[in-house]
C-alpha cells in the first residue's frame, strides 16, 4: 500500500532503500487536500495510486499528479488544457481520442502495441477549462529521457 510523506525527499529515501528495502516500480506523486491546501507526497506503484485516486473525493482529484524526478526516465504524458470560452463548440473528448489514435499509430511504426490498457485518463476539467492528464504506460518501459514542454 502507499505511504504518505511531508516531503519528496522523505518519499525518495524510502524508495532508495534507506529505510524500507527497495520497493520495485515505486513512483512519486504529489497530492494536495482541496480544503486544507496541505501538501503531501506519496511513494507507491502506479497501480496503487490509481486505486487510491479512485477513492478520492471529486475535488481532491484535481490535485494529484506524478512527480518527475530530475535525471530519471519518465513515462510519456500529455497535459491538455483548453480554455472553454475561446473554443466554444469544440469536441474536447473527440480531440483527445484523435491524439491517442495518432499516438497509437506512431507507436505501431516502432512495433509497439498501444491500446486502452496502456494509459490512464485523469479529468481535471471545470467550467472555464477542459483539462485532461494522460499518463502512458508501455510494458513497464519509459520512453522519455527528459521532459519537453510544448505550447501552442
* DSSP strand tally: 7
Low-confidence stretches: 18-22, 144-150
| Percent in strands | 25-35%
Average of the residue pLDDT scores = 78
> Strands of the largest sheet, in order across it?
1-3-2-4
Radius of gyration: 17 Å
How many H/I helical runs? 3
> How do the SSEs run, as a string of H and E?
EHEEHEEHEE
Query: What is the helix content?
Result: 10-25%
Which structural class should the secondary elements be placed in?
alpha+beta
Fold blueprint:
Layout: E1 3-5, H1 8-15, E2 27-32, E3 39-44, H2 46-55, E4 64-66, E5 77-83, H3 92-109, E6 119-123, E7 129-136
Antiparallel strand pairs: 1-3, 2-3, 2-4, 5-7, 6-7
Written account of the structure:
The chain is 24% helix and 25% strand. It is an alpha+beta fold and 152 residues long. The longest helix is centred in the middle third of the chain and has 18 residues, at 92-109. The model is unreliable at 18-22 and 144-150 (pLDDT under 50).
Amino acid at each position: 500500500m502507499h505511504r504518505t510523506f511531508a516531503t519528496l525527499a522523505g518519499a525518495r529515501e524510502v524508495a532508495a532503500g534507506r529505510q524500507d528495502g527497495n520497493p520495485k516500480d515505486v513512483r512519486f506523486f504529489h497530492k494536495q487536500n482541496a480544503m486544507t491546501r496541505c501538501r503531501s507526497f506519496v511513494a507507491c506503484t502506479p497501480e496503487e495510486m490509481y486505486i487510491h485516486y479512485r477513492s478520492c473525493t471529486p475535488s481532491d482529484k484535481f490535485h494529484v499528479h506524478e512527480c518527475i524526478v530530475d535525471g530519471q526516465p519518465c513515462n510519456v504524458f500529455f497535459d491538455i488544457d483548453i480554455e472553454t470560452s475561446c473554443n466554444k463548440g469544440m469536441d474536447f473528448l473527440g480531440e483527445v481520442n484523435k491524439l491517442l489514435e495518432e499516438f497509437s499509430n506512431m507507436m505501431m511504426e516502432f512495433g509497439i502495441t498501444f491500446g486502452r490498457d496502456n494509459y490512464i485518463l485523469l479529468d481535471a476539467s471545470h467550467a472555464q477549462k477542459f483539462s485532461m492528464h494522460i499518463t502512458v504506460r508501455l510494458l513497464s518501459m519509459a520512453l522519455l529521457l527528459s521532459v519537453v514542454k510544448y505550447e501552442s
